[in-house]
Design a protein that fits this description.
With 409 residues, this protein is α/β, with parallel strands linked by helices. Helix content is 33%, strand content 11%. Helix 3 runs parallel beside helix 4 and helix 4 packs parallel to helix 5. It is globular, with a radius of gyration of 26 Å.
Length: 409
C-alpha cells in the first residue's frame, strides 16, 4: 500500500509540473481538464500551507489556486485602468529653484536657448553636467556655455580615465584632474557603473573600487575640497536570477547589459563593500553617492551608511520608483537626513521632472510612474516640509559643490 501511495504521489506531482508549463486554459493547474483536481472541488487546486501556487494559477481562497478561464495578457500588454477616484495635484514646476546635480544633457549653441526655456518652466536653476568630461571635451563644453547668455545655468564635472591603472598612473591622473578643475570643472563625476564592474587593469584583472593605486586621485580631491560623484553598481535585483520572482524582470528582459547575475560577474555585496572601503579610507574627501547607492529599496541600510561615513552625501537620480512606493518611510528618511540628500534626475527629459516634484511636494495617492519597465506599481507623494524641500532642491548642493553659483537663490 505504501508503494502504491508513493507511485500515486509521483504521478500527481509530475502532472502538476507538466500542467504548469502548458498553455493557458484547458489542462493548466486549476483549469478545465486539470487531472490533479480533487473530486467536487470545482476548478480550484489545493496547496499546502506555505506552498506557492503553480505557474499559471493564482490564489483565490486560502489554500486554493485557480487558473484564469481565458489566456492572460503578457506582462507587457496588461495595462489596467484604475477606477480609484482621488484628488490629483500635478506639479509642473518645482516649488523652489533646483540644482540637478546629475544631468547628462549636452548643451550646444543650437540647443542651449531652448534648453534654458524648458529649465525655466520647470524651475531648474542649474544643471550639472555629469558625463565624464575631460580635456578638450570639457573645454569645448565649457566654452559653449560661457559664450551663451546662460553661463550661470550650467556647471560641469571632470572625468577620470581609468585605463592603464598601474605604476605612474596616479600622478598623471592628478595632473589631468588639476587641469580640468582649472578649466572650470566643479568636481569629479559621474564615475560610471563600469568602475568596479567591467574596467580592467593592464594585467586583465578587474579594477577594484578600493584599489590603492587610485588613492592619489581621491586624496587630491580632498585637498581641493571638491566632491567626487560616484556611481557604484546597479539595482540589487539586477544581480538576482531572472525568474518570475524578480520584480525587475521586464527591464532585465529588455536590456541584456543589465543582467549582472551571470557567471564571472562581480556581485552586489562585493561592489558595495569595495565602495564603503573607499569612503572609509578617504574621510577627508567629500563623496556624492549616486542613485541613493541603490539602497532606496532599503532605507535602513542607507541610513546606517550615512551614519557611518560623514563624508558621504547621496542623490536621488533614477530611484523615484522606490521612494514613491514607501511614502511614510521615505518622508521620515528625508526629514532625518535632510542635510545629506541632493536632487538629481540622471537622464534629461522635461516631461519626467514633474513626477519628481509631485512625489516630493504632495500627498497625492496612487499615480503613475513614467516608465512601466522600471515599476509596475504606483507612486505616492511624500509631502516634504518646506525647509527640507529647499535643502534637497538646492541648499545641500550649494554647500557640497562650492563651484555652483552661490547668489540669488
Amino acid at each position: 500500500m505504501r508503494r502504491a501511495a508513493l507511485v500515486l504521489m509521483t504521478v500527481v506531482v509530475a502532472a502538476v509540473m507538466a500542467a504548469a508549463q502548458a498553455p493557458a486554459g484547458r489542462g493548466r493547474p486549476g483549469g478545465p481538464g486539470d487531472p490533479t483536481l480533487p473530486a467536487g472541488r470545482g476548478r480550484g487546486l489545493q496547496i499546502q500551507p506555505g506552498q506557492e501556487c503553480p505557474a499559471g494559477t493564482t490564489l483565490v481562497r486560502v489554500g486554493v489556486c485557480q487558473a484564469p478561464e481565458f489566456d492572460p495578457p503578457s506582462i507587457v500588454d496588461y495595462r489596467p485602468s484604475s477606477t480609484l477616484v482621488v484628488e490629483q495635484h500635478p506639479v509642473p514646476r518645482a516649488r523652489y529653484p533646483v540644482v540637478d546635480i546629475h544631468s547628462h544633457v549636452n548643451p550646444t549653441p543650437q540647443t542651449i536657448d531652448q534648453l534654458v526655456k524648458e529649465m525655466d518652466a520647470l524651475n531648474l536653476r542649474v544643471l550639472v553636467l555629469a558625463s565624464n568630461l575631460s580635456g578638450e571635451r570639457l573645454r569645448t563644453t565649457l566654452a559653449t556655455i560661457n559664450a551663451s547668455q546662460h553661463k550661470d545655468r550650467f556647471r560641469a564635472m571632470a572625468g577620470i580615465d581609468f585605463n592603464n591603472v598601474g605604476p605612474g598612473w596616479g600622478a598623471k591622473a592628478v595632473a589631468q584632474l588639476e587641469a580640468d578643475i582649472k578649466a572650470g570643472a566643479i568636481g569629479v563625476g559621474e564615475i560610471s557603473k563600469s568602475f568596479g564592474m567591467t574596467i580592467r587593469k593592464p594585467d586583465a584583472s578587474r579594477l577594484r573600487i578600493d584599489d590603492p593605486e587610485l588613492d592619489p586621485v581621491w586624496d587630491a580631491m580632498g585637498r581641493m575640497g571638491l566632491p567626487v560623484f560616484i556611481h557604484t553598481g546597479e539595482p540589487e535585483a539586477f544581480f538576482q536570477p531572472l525568474t518570475m520572482h524578480n520584480e525587475r524582470w521586464l527591464e532585465l528582459s529588455l536590456f541584456n547589459d543589465r543582467r549582472n547575475y551571470l557567471p564571472g560577474q562581480v556581485g552586489f555585496e562585493e561592489l558595495t563593500t569595495q565602495r564603503d572601503n573607499l569612503f572609509r579610507k578617504h574621510p577627508k574627501t567629500q563623496f556624492i553617492l549616486a542613485h541613493f547607492g541603490w539602497h532606496a529599496n532599503n532605507l535602513g541600510r542607507l541610513g546606517k551608511l550615512l551614519d557611518t561615513y560623514p563624508n558621504v552625501v547621496t542623490e536621488m537620480g533614477a530611484v523615484l520608483y522606490d521612494l514613491g512606493r514607501q511614502p511614510r518611510a521615505a518622508h521620515d528618511f528625508f526629514v532625518k537626513y535632510q542635510d545629506r540628500i541632493l536632487f538629481g534626475k540622471d537622464a534629461y527629459a522635461r516631461e519626467e521632472f514633474p513626477y519628481y516634484w509631485r512625489v516630493l511636494e504632495t500627498r497625492d495617492e496612487y499615480f503613475d510612474y513614467y516608465r512601466d519597465y522600471h515599476a509596475f506599481w504606483k507612486l505616492y507623494g511624500i509631502d516634504l516640509p518646506e525647509g527640507v524641500l529647499r535643502k534637497v532642491y538646492h541648499q545641500n548642493a550649494l554647500r557640497v559643490a562650492p563651484g555652483l553659483p552661490q547668489r540669488n537663490w
